[in-house]
Design brief:
About 0% of the residues lie in helices and about 55% in strands. The chain is mainly beta and about 120 residues long. Strands 2, 4, 5, 6, 9, 10 and 11 form a 7-stranded mixed β-sheet that branches. It has a 4-stranded antiparallel β-sheet with strand order 1-3-8-7, with no helix packed on it. The N and C termini lie far apart (about 40 Å). The model has no long low-confidence stretch (mean pLDDT about 95).
Length: about 120
């Protein structure tokens, strides 16, 4: 059974930082592209960042320069370091593991709220 468990969300003031973590089980973690997506109220889920099995990264324009995705294959964990947070970053953040079309898994999400 595949499980992706996110943690690290919470309430932070504008300009603050948070580090999200996602621990995966039930997959050969090192073989998967890992990603972070987010969904704000009334909006579609959108890409934040991905990191491939060979550590190539990709970021949404909104995340470039502020967010950093990384992975630790020994711990089956992917991270999202978020700095200079803005109110528009408020959303539920989801972890994703994808290898092929039929091997595409999601976590339950963690809430990030940026507000003063």
């Amino acid at each position: 059974q595949v499980q992706l468990v996110e943690s690290g969300g919470g309430l932070v003031q504008p300009g603050g930082s948070l580090r999200l973590s996602c621990v995966a089980s039930g997959i050969i973690f090192s073989r998967y592209m890992m990603g972070w997506y987010r969904q704000a109220p009334g909006k579609q889920r959108e890409l934040v960042a991905t990191i491939s099995s060979d550590d190539s990264t990709n970021y949404a324009d909104s995340a470039k320069g502020r967010f950093t995705i990384s992975r630790d294959n020994a711990k089956n964990t992917v991270y999202l370091q978020m700095n200079s947070l803005k109110p528009e970053d408020t959303a539920v953040y989801y972890c994703n593991a994808k290898r092929r079309a039929f091997e595409n898994y999601w976590g339950q999400g963690t809430q990030v709220t940026v507000s003063s």
